[in-house]
Write a structure and sequence with these properties.
It is built from seven helices and nine strands. The mean pLDDT is 92. The chain has helices at residues 3-14, 16-41, 49-57, 89-98, 116-124, 135-147, 184-188, and strands at residues 78-81, 84-86, 106-110, 127-132, 153-157, 170-175, 190-200, 207-214, 217-225. The structure holds S-adenosyl-L-homocysteine.
Length: 239
């Protein structure tokens, strides 16, 4: 028997070929992810080392539908079903940097979606609470986050407009869907010194806002114009 054929049969029997293909694909994703952080995040002014490291670590391709995995490291949002999207990587980096958290702090996210932003936050702070209003998305994100072994992220189904009062106060709140004005419950659940990042505004005019609570007073600052899916209530009406 010729040696090539023998080698082929051996590879087939041991499954080595399949393993190699998987390794090769993982290496490709790793390369694309490092490039994404360099070219889309770091090059655009995100300089917080912990944020850059977290985005290098979290495997964004696992958070998008299988048939879109090859686009996971492009400079764009992607559909995740139920008419929702995973945010553009740069926006995730920017929002994560704006809330300026450390490993001792507790964060609330409104709009779990794919769970990607929650996972990035899981790398940056001590506890992450995330709320998603679409049940199948919440279930999928919870399952994925558990399977990735995050022990500091809790995802629940519910209306994030109301916040998560049992777990308040939060050192930071990140809102990844857009209401027309800032929800009062979120301001109430922000700790002293806390930061809230939220895309807010009427239909097509949304601004990413950073709010900081200092001595009980809220200071507001507008960051950039953005596009986000609307924040809705449990009947689908926009806030
Ligand atoms: N952070 C997400 C992106 C989410 S897109 C990620 O990393 O993938 C915004 C999400 O907000 C959608 O999944 C949408 O269903 C959810 N959403 C909209 N209104 C909401 C509300 N009132 N409470 C909680 N989630 C809401």
């Amino acid at each position: 028997m010729n040696t090539d054929l023998l080698f082929g049969i051996l590879m087939f029997l041991t499954g080595v070929n399949g393993v190699n293909l998987q390794n090769e694909q993982d290496m490709n994703f790793n390369t694309h992810r490092i490039k994404m952080v360099e070219e889309q995040i770091s090059a655009r002014g995100i300089s917080n080392f912990d944020v850059l490291r977290a985005m290098e670590k979290v495997e964004r391709h696992l958070f998008v539908p299988d048939h879109l995995q090859k686009y996971a490291y492009l400079d764009r949002p992607l559909p995740i079903g139920h008419e929702q999207t995973i945010s553009q990587p740069y926006i995730v980096g920017l929002m994560s940097q704006l809330i300026d958290v450390d490993k001792t702090e507790k964060v609330l996210e409104i709009g779990t979606g794919s769970g990607y932003q929650a996972a990035v936050l899981g790398e940056l702070c001590s506890e992450v609470y995330s709320i998603e209003i679409i049940k199948p998305l919440q279930k999928r994100a919870s399952f994925l986050i558990d399977s990735l072994n995050y022990k500091n992220i809790w995802v629940k189904h519910g209306d994030g407009y109301l916040g998560w009062s049992e777990k308040a106060p939060f050192d930071a709140i990140i809102v990844t869907c857009s209401p027309s004005s800032i929800p009062q419950p979120l301001l109430d659940q922000l700790a002293e010194g806390g930061r809230l990042v939220i895309p807010v505004g009427l239909k097509n005019v949304k601004k990413l806002m950073l709010l900081i609570k200092t001595n009980g007073k809220i200071k507001k600052q507008s960051v950039i114009p953005v596009r986000f899916v609307p924040m809705v209530d449990d009947k689908g009406n926009t806030y």
